[in-house]
């Protein structure tokens, strides 16, 4: 280990690009930089073929068909396109279904999309979760009826790492004739996903959460029975008219390679990552008695720990006191906010405790030494701060 190298434990915010992904992308920056829509010449056709091969790899990761994959700039765009696109198409056909059901712990881009649609005449229903972060399936079943257009529930929470019962949620949506969308940005490559098994109509993915590049993502759009969407913006009609704009071939190739690796190595990754997580937690619990893990302990992804420290030590101060350790106090997409995590508040965690909470994200390249050293540095910082407050 290089001396003073930062210890990166924030793999829910973003993952490093796998060297194999970087190698797959490089020729499409340097050797064949052609527009993949310029199919009139050899280089353009080669770029198009690379894009389509990547699309097939992305589809394989989630049990879909390649033609059901719409390439986007990332999961935020995919979520917006899925939710707003489905709602606005329903409005064009004057559907009686106007209810959109989601959870209080969803990603901000989902919650804001649902709330934005209220101004267009749709009915947002934001359901609470249990203290463990999981959906109350009976409450969900009661909220989803013949008025419901869409149920949108994320597969894995980006802060507390809990895994929702997607198959059960999909079945509830289908029983009422509603569409089911899931934000799977934090799930892909970490847990098995099959759009047929979970009855998903729409599913969002992000490249930089699965060791691929930033700036690229995908939206699965079910073909049979066909899901119709109104695009977010106008243009040349690329991506079957769902998402106009020139595709960035190198980024698409990178996402395809990341998806291929995730499909073949994801389970092996999960076992190894769980070991580093347990190593970290064991060391931290011994050094700081009273730390608490938030969210369901069993139904969660391998690399996630959401930890509340005792004694009211502020998480922001703790991070400043341990600058060698790269962790976060919540979602990277909400990091500009000074309020404590809305996800933790939805679990019923008091504000003071929410402010004393860190999110730890182990990943493919986290070593046992990283886990042990990270825990030790955070523990040392906590003890210094705790002593200063006495």
TrEMBL record:
Reactions mediated catalytically: (sulfur carrier)-H + L-cysteine = (sulfur carrier)-SH + L-alanine
Keywords per UniProt: Aminotransferase, Iron, Iron-sulfur, Metal-binding, Pyridoxal phosphate, Transferase
InterPro entries according to UniProt: Aminotrans_V_dom, Cysteine_dSase, PyrdxlP-dep_Trfase, PyrdxlP-dep_Trfase_major, PyrdxlP-dep_Trfase_small
Domain Aminotransferase class V: 7-372
SUPFAM superfamilies referenced in this protein's UniProt entry, alphabetically: PLP-dependent transferases (SSF53383)
Pfam families: Aminotran_5 (PF00266)
One Gene Ontology molecular-function label: transaminase activity
Keyword Iron-sulfur listed: yes
Cofactor(s) the protein needs: pyridoxal 5'-phosphate
Function recorded in the entry: Catalyzes the removal of elemental sulfur atoms from cysteine to produce alanine. Seems to participate in the biosynthesis of the nitrogenase metalloclusters by providing the inorganic sulfur required for the Fe-S core formation.
Family: Belongs to the class-V pyridoxal-phosphate-dependent aminotransferase family. NifS/IscS subfamily.
Protein name as it appears in the record: Cysteine desulfurase
Provenance organism: Paracraurococcus lichenis
Upper taxonomic lineage: Bacteria, Pseudomonadati, Pseudomonadota, Alphaproteobacteria, Acetobacterales
